[in-house]
Automatic annotation (TrEMBL):
Residues noted as binding substrate in the record, renumbered to the chain: Q28, H129, N173, Y311, W421, E428, W429
Positions annotated as active site in the UniProt record: E174, E375
Enzyme class per UniProt: hydrolase
GO BP terms, alphabetized: cellulose catabolic process
Protein family per UniProt: Belongs to the glycosyl hydrolase 1 family.
InterPro entries: GH (IPR017853), GH_1_N_CS (IPR033132), Glyco_hydro_1 (IPR001360), Glyco_hydro_1_beta-glucosidase (IPR017736)
Protein name: Beta-glucosidase
GO molecular function: beta-glucosidase activity
Lineage, highest ranks first: Bacteria, Bacillati, Actinomycetota, Actinomycetes, Streptosporangiales
PANTHER family reported in the protein's UniProt record: GLYCOSYL HYDROLASE, LP05116P
Keyword Hydrolase carried by entry: yes
UniProt keyword annotations, A-Z: Carbohydrate metabolism, Cellulose degradation, Glycosidase, Hydrolase, Polysaccharide degradation
EC number: 3.2.1.21
Length: 467
Protein backbone atom coordinates (compact mmCIF):
# COMPACT_ATOMS: atom_id res chain seq x y z
CA UNK A 1 0.00 0.00 0.00
CA UNK A 2 1.30 3.45 -0.86
CA UNK A 3 1.22 6.02 1.92
CA UNK A 4 0.10 9.31 0.41
CA UNK A 5 0.15 12.85 1.72
CA UNK A 6 -2.09 15.85 1.14
CA UNK A 7 0.76 18.13 0.10
CA UNK A 8 3.21 17.99 -2.77
CA UNK A 9 6.53 16.44 -1.76
CA UNK A 10 9.17 18.98 -0.90
CA UNK A 11 6.80 21.80 0.00
CA UNK A 12 7.31 21.47 3.78
CA UNK A 13 10.90 21.29 5.01
CA UNK A 14 11.89 21.59 8.66
CA UNK A 15 15.09 23.13 10.08
CA UNK A 16 18.21 21.03 9.68
CA UNK A 17 18.52 19.94 13.34
CA UNK A 18 14.80 19.54 14.02
CA UNK A 19 14.15 16.75 16.57
CA UNK A 20 11.71 13.99 15.65
CA UNK A 21 10.40 11.51 18.17
CA UNK A 22 7.55 10.06 20.19
CA UNK A 23 6.32 10.13 23.77
CA UNK A 24 4.83 7.80 26.37
CA UNK A 25 4.22 7.76 30.13
CA UNK A 26 5.16 5.17 32.73
CA UNK A 27 1.77 4.13 34.13
CA UNK A 28 0.26 4.05 30.66
CA UNK A 29 2.67 1.50 29.18
CA UNK A 30 4.93 -0.20 31.73
CA UNK A 31 2.74 -2.68 33.60
CA UNK A 32 4.67 -4.78 36.14
CA UNK A 33 3.08 -2.76 38.92
CA UNK A 34 4.06 -5.21 41.68
CA UNK A 35 7.44 -6.31 40.42
CA UNK A 36 10.92 -5.68 41.81
CA UNK A 37 9.90 -3.50 44.72
CA UNK A 38 7.66 -0.97 42.97
CA UNK A 39 5.33 0.77 45.39
CA UNK A 40 1.70 1.71 44.84
CA UNK A 41 0.81 4.90 42.98
CA UNK A 42 -2.33 7.00 43.11
CA UNK A 43 -3.26 5.62 39.69
CA UNK A 44 -3.04 2.05 40.97
CA UNK A 45 -5.49 3.03 43.70
CA UNK A 46 -7.73 5.09 41.42
CA UNK A 47 -7.95 2.54 38.61
CA UNK A 48 -8.87 -0.20 41.08
CA UNK A 49 -11.66 1.93 42.57
CA UNK A 50 -14.99 0.83 41.02
CA UNK A 51 -16.52 3.39 38.70
CA UNK A 52 -13.43 5.53 38.19
CA UNK A 53 -12.05 4.04 34.95
CA UNK A 54 -13.82 2.73 31.86
CA UNK A 55 -15.05 -0.83 32.45
CA UNK A 56 -12.68 -1.27 35.38
CA UNK A 57 -9.54 -1.15 33.25
CA UNK A 58 -6.22 -0.77 35.08
CA UNK A 59 -2.56 -0.26 34.22
CA UNK A 60 -1.52 -3.52 35.89
CA UNK A 61 -0.25 -4.92 32.57
CA UNK A 62 -0.76 -2.02 30.16
CA UNK A 63 1.61 -2.62 27.20
CA UNK A 64 4.05 -4.66 29.31
CA UNK A 65 6.79 -2.26 28.24
CA UNK A 66 8.69 -3.14 31.42
CA UNK A 67 9.47 -6.56 29.92
CA UNK A 68 9.32 -5.64 26.22
CA UNK A 69 11.32 -2.42 26.19
CA UNK A 70 14.08 -3.82 23.98
CA UNK A 71 11.59 -4.71 21.25
CA UNK A 72 9.95 -1.32 21.65
CA UNK A 73 13.27 0.50 21.26
CA UNK A 74 14.05 -1.58 18.16
CA UNK A 75 10.66 -0.51 16.79
CA UNK A 76 11.49 3.14 17.51
CA UNK A 77 14.67 2.77 15.51
CA UNK A 78 12.76 1.13 12.66
CA UNK A 79 10.47 4.19 12.58
CA UNK A 80 13.44 6.61 12.34
CA UNK A 81 12.77 8.17 15.76
CA UNK A 82 15.63 10.29 17.02
CA UNK A 83 14.14 11.07 20.44
CA UNK A 84 11.98 9.23 22.94
CA UNK A 85 10.23 10.96 25.81
CA UNK A 86 9.33 8.64 28.66
CA UNK A 87 8.51 9.19 32.31
CA UNK A 88 10.01 7.61 35.40
CA UNK A 89 7.58 6.01 37.82
CA UNK A 90 8.29 7.65 41.17
CA UNK A 91 6.99 4.63 43.17
CA UNK A 92 9.32 2.36 41.20
CA UNK A 93 12.27 4.46 42.40
CA UNK A 94 11.01 5.28 45.90
CA UNK A 95 8.16 2.95 46.84
CA UNK A 96 7.00 5.24 49.65
CA UNK A 97 7.93 8.48 47.91
CA UNK A 98 10.83 9.20 50.22
CA UNK A 99 13.87 7.65 51.81
CA UNK A 100 16.11 5.03 50.27
CA UNK A 101 15.84 4.35 46.57
CA UNK A 102 14.86 0.98 45.13
CA UNK A 103 17.91 -0.19 43.13
CA UNK A 104 15.88 -2.59 41.00
CA UNK A 105 13.49 0.18 39.96
CA UNK A 106 16.28 2.53 38.94
CA UNK A 107 18.00 -0.33 37.13
CA UNK A 108 15.08 -0.60 34.71
CA UNK A 109 15.52 2.99 33.56
CA UNK A 110 19.28 2.48 33.46
CA UNK A 111 18.78 -0.40 31.01
CA UNK A 112 16.23 1.59 28.99
CA UNK A 113 18.56 4.58 28.61
CA UNK A 114 21.43 2.34 27.51
CA UNK A 115 19.19 0.61 24.98
CA UNK A 116 18.04 3.94 23.55
CA UNK A 117 21.57 5.27 23.23
CA UNK A 118 22.74 2.05 21.61
CA UNK A 119 20.09 2.70 18.95
CA UNK A 120 21.08 6.38 18.65
CA UNK A 121 17.82 7.60 20.18
CA UNK A 122 18.08 10.58 22.54
CA UNK A 123 16.25 9.98 25.86
CA UNK A 124 13.98 12.75 27.16
CA UNK A 125 13.18 11.98 30.79
CA UNK A 126 10.03 13.29 32.47
CA UNK A 127 10.26 12.97 36.24
CA UNK A 128 6.54 13.26 37.00
CA UNK A 129 3.73 12.10 34.75
CA UNK A 130 1.03 11.76 37.40
CA UNK A 131 1.97 8.54 39.26
CA UNK A 132 2.44 10.00 42.73
CA UNK A 133 3.35 7.37 45.36
CA UNK A 134 0.20 6.51 47.28
CA UNK A 135 2.11 6.83 50.55
CA UNK A 136 2.61 10.54 49.87
CA UNK A 137 -1.04 10.99 48.92
CA UNK A 138 -1.97 9.42 52.24
CA UNK A 139 -0.04 12.27 53.88
CA UNK A 140 -1.82 14.94 51.82
CA UNK A 141 -0.41 14.49 48.33
CA UNK A 142 0.15 17.68 46.41
CA UNK A 143 -1.89 19.66 48.93
CA UNK A 144 0.94 18.98 51.42
CA UNK A 145 3.90 21.34 50.96
CA UNK A 146 6.36 18.65 51.99
CA UNK A 147 5.60 16.67 48.80
CA UNK A 148 7.48 19.33 46.80
CA UNK A 149 10.62 18.71 48.85
CA UNK A 150 10.29 14.95 48.52
CA UNK A 151 10.03 15.43 44.75
CA UNK A 152 13.34 17.31 44.72
CA UNK A 153 14.98 14.43 46.61
CA UNK A 154 13.56 11.99 44.06
CA UNK A 155 14.85 14.14 41.18
CA UNK A 156 18.36 14.03 42.66
CA UNK A 157 18.21 10.25 42.96
CA UNK A 158 17.16 9.76 39.35
CA UNK A 159 19.79 12.20 38.10
CA UNK A 160 22.47 10.43 40.14
CA UNK A 161 21.71 7.25 38.19
CA UNK A 162 21.01 8.58 34.70
CA UNK A 163 22.57 12.04 34.54
CA UNK A 164 25.82 10.87 32.99
CA UNK A 165 23.89 9.84 29.84
CA UNK A 166 20.65 11.83 29.81
CA UNK A 167 20.86 15.44 28.56
CA UNK A 168 17.16 16.36 28.51
CA UNK A 169 15.04 16.59 31.66
CA UNK A 170 11.41 17.59 32.19
CA UNK A 171 10.29 18.16 35.76
CA UNK A 172 6.49 17.93 35.52
CA UNK A 173 4.00 16.91 32.88
CA UNK A 174 0.86 19.06 32.71
CA UNK A 175 0.58 20.33 36.29
CA UNK A 176 -2.81 21.84 35.40
CA UNK A 177 -4.17 18.34 34.86
CA UNK A 178 -2.56 16.98 38.03
CA UNK A 179 -4.03 19.78 40.12
CA UNK A 180 -7.40 20.52 38.61
CA UNK A 181 -8.51 17.13 37.30
CA UNK A 182 -6.94 15.29 40.23
CA UNK A 183 -7.98 17.61 43.07
CA UNK A 184 -10.68 19.81 41.51
CA UNK A 185 -13.22 17.76 39.58
CA UNK A 186 -11.84 14.36 40.55
CA UNK A 187 -11.86 12.64 37.14
CA UNK A 188 -8.16 11.82 37.57
CA UNK A 189 -6.28 10.35 40.50
CA UNK A 190 -6.42 10.91 43.39
CA UNK A 191 -10.04 11.84 42.73
CA UNK A 192 -10.48 14.73 45.14
CA UNK A 193 -13.06 17.46 44.53
CA UNK A 194 -12.24 20.72 46.27
CA UNK A 195 -11.34 23.99 44.59
CA UNK A 196 -9.10 25.01 47.47
CA UNK A 197 -7.24 21.70 47.24
CA UNK A 198 -6.68 22.15 43.51
CA UNK A 199 -5.13 25.58 43.99
CA UNK A 200 -2.90 24.36 46.81
CA UNK A 201 -1.86 21.39 44.68
CA UNK A 202 -1.03 23.57 41.69
CA UNK A 203 1.20 25.83 43.79
CA UNK A 204 3.03 22.92 45.39
CA UNK A 205 3.53 21.34 41.98
CA UNK A 206 5.16 24.57 40.82
CA UNK A 207 7.28 24.64 43.96
CA UNK A 208 8.31 21.06 43.20
CA UNK A 209 9.30 22.15 39.69
CA UNK A 210 11.45 24.97 41.04
CA UNK A 211 13.14 22.82 43.69
CA UNK A 212 13.79 20.02 41.20
CA UNK A 213 15.12 22.46 38.59
CA UNK A 214 17.55 23.80 41.20
CA UNK A 215 18.66 20.28 42.08
CA UNK A 216 19.07 19.18 38.48
CA UNK A 217 21.03 22.29 37.53
CA UNK A 218 23.30 21.92 40.55
CA UNK A 219 24.07 18.36 39.48
CA UNK A 220 24.89 19.44 35.92
CA UNK A 221 21.71 18.91 33.91
CA UNK A 222 22.22 20.22 30.38
CA UNK A 223 18.63 20.99 29.40
CA UNK A 224 15.60 21.43 31.69
CA UNK A 225 11.98 21.94 30.68
CA UNK A 226 8.53 22.31 32.17
CA UNK A 227 5.80 20.56 30.17
CA UNK A 228 2.37 22.21 30.06
CA UNK A 229 -0.94 21.42 28.39
CA UNK A 230 -1.12 24.62 26.40
CA UNK A 231 -4.05 25.80 24.37
CA UNK A 232 -5.02 29.03 22.64
CA UNK A 233 -8.11 30.46 24.34
CA UNK A 234 -10.57 32.08 21.94
CA UNK A 235 -14.20 32.89 21.29
CA UNK A 236 -16.27 30.70 18.94
CA UNK A 237 -15.94 33.29 16.16
CA UNK A 238 -12.15 33.33 16.51
CA UNK A 239 -11.74 29.61 15.87
CA UNK A 240 -11.60 30.25 12.14
CA UNK A 241 -10.97 34.00 12.18
CA UNK A 242 -8.37 35.12 14.74
CA UNK A 243 -9.17 38.74 13.93
CA UNK A 244 -12.86 38.40 14.76
CA UNK A 245 -13.90 41.05 17.25
CA UNK A 246 -15.08 40.00 20.69
CA UNK A 247 -17.39 41.83 23.03
CA UNK A 248 -15.78 43.16 26.21
CA UNK A 249 -17.53 40.43 28.19
CA UNK A 250 -16.25 37.71 25.85
CA UNK A 251 -12.75 39.21 25.85
CA UNK A 252 -12.75 39.20 29.65
CA UNK A 253 -13.74 35.53 29.64
CA UNK A 254 -10.85 34.75 27.27
CA UNK A 255 -8.34 36.65 29.44
CA UNK A 256 -9.46 34.94 32.62
CA UNK A 257 -9.40 31.40 31.26
CA UNK A 258 -6.07 32.03 29.54
CA UNK A 259 -4.65 33.15 32.90
CA UNK A 260 -6.04 30.07 34.67
CA UNK A 261 -4.63 27.72 32.02
CA UNK A 262 -1.37 29.20 30.72
CA UNK A 263 -0.56 32.11 32.99
CA UNK A 264 -1.04 30.18 36.23
CA UNK A 265 2.02 28.06 35.38
CA UNK A 266 4.16 29.92 32.86
CA UNK A 267 4.14 33.28 34.63
CA UNK A 268 5.41 31.92 37.97
CA UNK A 269 7.93 29.62 36.28
CA UNK A 270 9.27 32.20 33.82
CA UNK A 271 8.47 35.55 35.43
CA UNK A 272 8.21 34.81 39.16
CA UNK A 273 4.63 36.07 39.54
CA UNK A 274 1.01 34.96 39.39
CA UNK A 275 -1.45 36.79 37.10
CA UNK A 276 -3.91 39.00 38.96
CA UNK A 277 -6.83 36.90 37.68
CA UNK A 278 -5.27 33.82 39.29
CA UNK A 279 -4.63 35.57 42.61
CA UNK A 280 -8.25 36.73 42.72
CA UNK A 281 -9.51 33.21 42.06
CA UNK A 282 -7.18 31.74 44.68
CA UNK A 283 -8.22 34.35 47.23
CA UNK A 284 -11.85 33.46 46.69
CA UNK A 285 -11.21 29.73 47.13
CA UNK A 286 -9.40 29.38 50.43
CA UNK A 287 -6.98 32.28 50.42
CA UNK A 288 -3.27 32.64 49.68
CA UNK A 289 -1.75 31.22 52.85
CA UNK A 290 -0.13 28.38 50.87
CA UNK A 291 2.06 30.88 48.96
CA UNK A 292 4.96 31.62 51.30
CA UNK A 293 7.64 34.28 51.09
CA UNK A 294 10.35 33.17 48.69
CA UNK A 295 8.21 30.59 46.89
CA UNK A 296 7.95 32.52 43.64
CA UNK A 297 11.71 33.10 43.60
CA UNK A 298 12.20 29.35 44.00
CA UNK A 299 9.69 28.56 41.27
CA UNK A 300 11.28 31.07 38.89
CA UNK A 301 14.33 28.99 37.94
CA UNK A 302 16.13 29.36 34.61
CA UNK A 303 14.93 26.66 32.21
CA UNK A 304 15.79 25.96 28.61
CA UNK A 305 12.53 24.80 27.07
CA UNK A 306 8.79 24.89 27.48
CA UNK A 307 7.30 21.55 26.52
CA UNK A 308 4.00 22.06 24.71
CA UNK A 309 1.28 19.39 24.79
CA UNK A 310 -1.34 20.54 22.29
CA UNK A 311 -4.55 18.79 21.30
CA UNK A 312 -7.22 21.44 20.70
CA UNK A 313 -8.13 25.06 21.42
CA UNK A 314 -10.14 26.19 24.44
CA UNK A 315 -13.26 28.02 23.30
CA UNK A 316 -15.13 30.31 25.71
CA UNK A 317 -17.58 33.18 25.81
CA UNK A 318 -19.37 35.17 28.47
CA UNK A 319 -22.01 33.18 30.32
CA UNK A 320 -23.65 35.38 32.97
CA UNK A 321 -24.89 33.35 35.90
CA UNK A 322 -23.06 30.15 34.98
CA UNK A 323 -21.28 28.68 38.03
CA UNK A 324 -17.59 27.86 37.87
CA UNK A 325 -16.67 24.55 36.29
CA UNK A 326 -15.19 22.22 38.93
CA UNK A 327 -12.01 21.89 36.85
CA UNK A 328 -11.79 25.65 36.47
CA UNK A 329 -12.26 27.37 39.83
CA UNK A 330 -12.53 31.05 39.07
CA UNK A 331 -14.46 30.46 35.82
CA UNK A 332 -17.87 31.65 36.98
CA UNK A 333 -19.85 33.56 34.33
CA UNK A 334 -17.91 31.77 31.57
CA UNK A 335 -19.42 29.35 29.07
CA UNK A 336 -17.10 26.70 27.60
CA UNK A 337 -18.30 26.29 24.02
CA UNK A 338 -17.75 23.68 21.31
CA UNK A 339 -15.60 24.65 18.34
CA UNK A 340 -17.04 24.55 14.86
CA UNK A 341 -14.67 21.84 13.64
CA UNK A 342 -14.42 18.10 13.03
CA UNK A 343 -13.63 16.05 16.11
CA UNK A 344 -11.51 13.07 17.15
CA UNK A 345 -12.80 9.93 18.86
CA UNK A 346 -12.41 11.85 22.12
CA UNK A 347 -14.80 14.51 20.83
CA UNK A 348 -11.95 17.03 20.75
CA UNK A 349 -12.10 19.62 17.93
CA UNK A 350 -9.40 19.41 15.27
CA UNK A 351 -8.00 22.92 14.80
CA UNK A 352 -4.36 22.81 13.60
CA UNK A 353 -4.23 26.58 13.17
CA UNK A 354 -4.62 26.88 16.93
CA UNK A 355 -1.20 25.32 17.34
CA UNK A 356 0.41 27.88 15.04
CA UNK A 357 -1.19 30.74 16.97
CA UNK A 358 -0.09 29.25 20.29
CA UNK A 359 3.53 28.71 19.27
CA UNK A 360 3.95 32.17 17.77
CA UNK A 361 2.44 33.81 20.83
CA UNK A 362 4.56 31.85 23.31
CA UNK A 363 7.75 32.62 21.41
CA UNK A 364 6.85 36.29 21.50
CA UNK A 365 5.87 36.26 25.19
CA UNK A 366 8.83 34.16 26.39
CA UNK A 367 11.65 34.65 23.88
CA UNK A 368 14.29 33.51 26.35
CA UNK A 369 13.21 29.85 26.13
CA UNK A 370 12.84 27.46 23.24
CA UNK A 371 9.68 25.47 22.53
CA UNK A 372 9.23 21.78 21.92
CA UNK A 373 6.09 19.89 21.01
CA UNK A 374 6.22 17.21 23.69
CA UNK A 375 2.78 15.76 22.88
CA UNK A 376 0.48 16.05 19.89
CA UNK A 377 -1.78 13.36 18.55
CA UNK A 378 -5.31 12.05 18.43
CA UNK A 379 -7.55 9.11 19.20
CA UNK A 380 -9.37 7.59 16.25
CA UNK A 381 -11.16 4.30 15.60
CA UNK A 382 -8.59 2.37 13.60
CA UNK A 383 -9.43 -0.31 11.03
CA UNK A 384 -7.47 -3.58 11.03
CA UNK A 385 -7.51 -5.45 7.72
CA UNK A 386 -5.22 -8.39 6.85
CA UNK A 387 -2.69 -7.46 9.47
CA UNK A 388 -2.54 -3.79 8.47
CA UNK A 389 -3.87 -0.97 10.63
CA UNK A 390 -5.43 1.86 8.68
CA UNK A 391 -5.89 5.21 10.44
CA UNK A 392 -6.41 7.92 7.81
CA UNK A 393 -7.92 10.28 10.39
CA UNK A 394 -4.78 10.20 12.53
CA UNK A 395 -2.48 10.61 9.53
CA UNK A 396 -4.48 13.65 8.40
CA UNK A 397 -4.44 15.04 11.95
CA UNK A 398 -0.66 14.69 12.22
CA UNK A 399 -0.04 16.20 8.82
CA UNK A 400 -2.25 19.17 9.60
CA UNK A 401 -0.56 19.82 12.94
CA UNK A 402 2.95 19.34 11.61
CA UNK A 403 2.05 21.82 8.91
CA UNK A 404 0.95 24.19 11.68
CA UNK A 405 4.30 23.74 13.44
CA UNK A 406 6.11 24.50 10.21
CA UNK A 407 3.95 27.58 9.70
CA UNK A 408 4.83 28.82 13.20
CA UNK A 409 8.53 28.31 12.54
CA UNK A 410 8.17 30.33 9.34
CA UNK A 411 6.68 33.10 11.47
CA UNK A 412 9.67 33.07 13.80
CA UNK A 413 8.62 30.67 16.56
CA UNK A 414 11.61 28.91 18.12
CA UNK A 415 10.33 25.34 17.91
CA UNK A 416 13.07 22.74 18.35
CA UNK A 417 11.26 19.47 17.81
CA UNK A 418 8.10 17.37 17.67
CA UNK A 419 7.24 14.29 19.75
CA UNK A 420 4.09 12.51 18.65
CA UNK A 421 1.63 11.23 21.25
CA UNK A 422 1.78 8.40 21.48
CA UNK A 423 4.21 5.76 20.36
CA UNK A 424 1.88 2.97 21.50
CA UNK A 425 -1.79 2.51 22.10
CA UNK A 426 -1.98 2.45 25.89
CA UNK A 427 -3.93 2.94 29.10
CA UNK A 428 -5.67 6.25 28.46
CA UNK A 429 -6.30 7.24 32.08
CA UNK A 430 -10.02 7.35 32.93
CA UNK A 431 -10.83 6.08 29.41
CA UNK A 432 -8.87 2.88 30.03
CA UNK A 433 -8.12 1.02 26.81
CA UNK A 434 -11.20 2.34 25.03
CA UNK A 435 -9.35 5.16 23.23
CA UNK A 436 -6.29 4.61 21.07
CA UNK A 437 -3.75 7.40 20.52
CA UNK A 438 -0.82 5.29 19.32
CA UNK A 439 0.87 5.36 15.95
CA UNK A 440 1.61 1.72 16.80
CA UNK A 441 -1.34 -0.59 17.38
CA UNK A 442 -1.23 -2.82 20.46
CA UNK A 443 -3.34 -5.97 20.63
CA UNK A 444 -4.18 -5.94 24.33
CA UNK A 445 -4.57 -9.73 24.48
CA UNK A 446 -1.40 -10.81 22.66
CA UNK A 447 0.45 -7.49 23.19
CA UNK A 448 1.67 -7.68 19.59
CA UNK A 449 2.73 -4.29 18.19
CA UNK A 450 1.81 -3.30 14.63
CA UNK A 451 2.83 0.06 13.13
CA UNK A 452 -0.22 1.84 11.74
CA UNK A 453 -0.32 3.67 8.42
CA UNK A 454 0.31 6.89 10.36
CA UNK A 455 3.55 5.42 11.74
CA UNK A 456 4.75 4.50 8.27
CA UNK A 457 3.90 7.99 7.04
CA UNK A 458 5.66 9.55 10.04
CA UNK A 459 8.74 7.42 9.31
CA UNK A 460 8.83 8.88 5.79
CA UNK A 461 8.42 12.42 7.11
CA UNK A 462 11.31 11.96 9.52
CA UNK A 463 13.51 10.48 6.81
CA UNK A 464 12.83 13.44 4.53
CA UNK A 465 12.72 16.03 7.36
CA UNK A 466 9.39 17.09 5.90
CA UNK A 467 7.29 16.20 2.90
Amino acid sequence: MTITTMAARGTVVFPENFIWGAATASYQIEGAVKEEGRGQSIWDTFSHTPGKVFEGHTGDVACDHYHRYRDDVALMKELNLGAYRFSVAWPRVQPDGQGAVNPAGLAFYDRLVDELLEHEIDPYVTLYHWDLPQALEDRGGWTDRDTAYRFADYARAVYDKLGDRVRNWATLNEPWVSAFLGYGNGVHAPGRTAASDSFRASHHLLLAHGLAAQALRAQGAEQIMLVVNASPVMTPAQVHDPAAEASEADAEAVRRIDALLQGQFLEPALRGRYPEEVLRARSAEGGLDHILDGDLETINQPIDLIGINYYNPTVVEAGPGIPADAAWPGSQDVRFSPADAPTTAMGWPIVPSGLSRLLVRLSQDYPEVGLMITENGAAFDDVVVDGRVHDPGRQSYLEGHLGAVHNAIQQGADVRGYLVWSLLDNFEWAFGYDKRFGIVHVDYESLVRTPKDSALWYKQVIGANGW
